[in-house]
Structure formats: structure tokens, C-alpha cells
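Appendix B. One record, verbatim.
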Amino acid sequence: MSSTPVVIAKPQARELLERVDVPKILRKLFRDLAAGQAVQPAQQLVEFPQGAGDFINYLGVLAEDGVYGVKTSPYIVRQEGGPLVTAWTLLMSMHTGQPLMLCDAGELTTARTAATTAVAVDALAPLQASRLAIIGSGPVALAHLRYAKDLRAWQRISVYSPRLAGRPEMLAQLQAIDPRAQVSDSREAAIHDADVIMLCTSSATPVIDPRTLSRPALITSISTNAARAHEVPPQTLGQMQVYCDYRLTTPGSAGEMLIASEQHGWDKAAIIGDLAELLSEQTPRPVYDRPVFFRSIGLGLEDIALANAVYQLQR
């Protein structure tokens, strides 16, 4: 017995995702992970010969939903126009062994990346936090603003990106999501006295140095496909309280953690907790006597949980 999977292109995925409570799905996912109802293998990096690019494969199993899935994301080096990055998620039934859906994962990736950060901010940020800074202005940064805007009673939302200078249409995009969003003239101005700093860039090298902050803050950082990408200096990990999305896989992929371990004596055992532990109350919230760092590499389970939600909706 065989079946042809449903194929979901980007426009339909975007439309369906607008009907999904993404943070709610991710919170359930991490609680399932803590309860042993989900399986998250490590990321798989498959490099092309002669430095021509790579594929990163993200896998996962959601036992309660009866689905297995894999997202595969190529990073293809080109002579002109920068690297080409795409992503597709394949969802399969654990009961029949048949493919259920093949979905363009671009929209899923943006949503789950930002919503995972939002779940972390809600779990880690001080309850009285009032100043939010966002570094970046692309689709992922906009999604971060969308999912984080209601997490605290923000009195100030500062956004910085070199791309924002002289671009009133981009400010309009930000303020359509939240009128409180204001463009800062510099990165330093954006993060000054911030309680939460969300790094939403595709940079492969440090974007800010936590040692220069005027006060301890929560810093969140995401991944890009560039090898060993990191948005904070690796040597600063030992001076922060470190959390991550999943402690069993993140240290083996996050660039600053790999470099800190190899060159600066940092040990992954220093990770205080991950989202599964935070949401199941197995680890304490941080005390803000020094910066708090949350690192997300993007889990296959996040993509699969959203793909399953999209699949159920389109049925």
C-alpha cells in the first residue's frame, strides 16, 4: 500500500500558519519532550565537496501525534547573488509508514524560530522587564517582534539594523506589528539599558559583546547555516547564565558553544537548563546578577510539530 503525500507550497503554508497558535504548539512540544513523548536526534550536517555548501537535516518523532518527520535545508554556495537557502519538511505516519505531506518549510522555519525565542523569553525574562531590543530587520526579526510583543508590558521596543537607515517603509512594517517599535540610530543605542535583547541576524560572527552591557539582560540568539555561526563572542559564555532549546543537541551544533569548548575551557555541563526543563519546571528561572544567554539552534521537532498542525488544518 502506498500513498502520495500532500504537497504544500509556500503561499498555502503561510495562509495555514496564520490560523495556528505557534507558541502554544511549541510549548506542548517541549512538555512532550520532557515527558518522553517526543524524540529529538541531533542535527545532521552533510557537507558538499570543495566547500560548495551543505545540507542540514533536522529530524524528530512526536509519539502522541503518531508522526515522524525530517526537515532538510540546503545551503548552496553560488558565484553571484549570495548563497541559496531553501528548506522542505517531510511528514510521515508512524502507523502506516507512508508519507503524509511535503511542505515548503520556509514559512515554518521563520515561525518556529521566532516563536521558540518567544517561549524562551516568556520563561526567562524578568516579569517586570519593560525594555526590548531587536537586532535585525528581516522576516525572522519581524516574526520575533510579532511573537514577543505581548509577552511583557514593554515600555520601549528598539530595533536596529543597518538596512533600516533611510527606509521609512521598513519602519512602517515594524509599526504595523507594534506601534511601540522605534528604529535606533546604532546598535549601542538599541541595547542600552535593555532588559531583553533578541539577536535576529544571519551573521556568522559576533553581533554584540555581553561584557559591554550597562546592566544584566536576557540575550537570545538563533542560528544560520554558516559554519560555526555565533552572535556573541564564545569566550563570554563562561560569564553568563546559559540556557538553550535542547541541551542534548544544541552544544554539538551551536558555533559559540563549540568554539568556547575547544578554545576557552567552557563545558556544556554549565548549561543551566533547556526549554523542556523550563516548561516542566525542572530547572529554576535565572537570577539577574549577570547576563542570561539563550541559544536556539532550531529543532526538527519544532518543524515537525508545525508541519503536523498545517497538515491537520489542510485536511
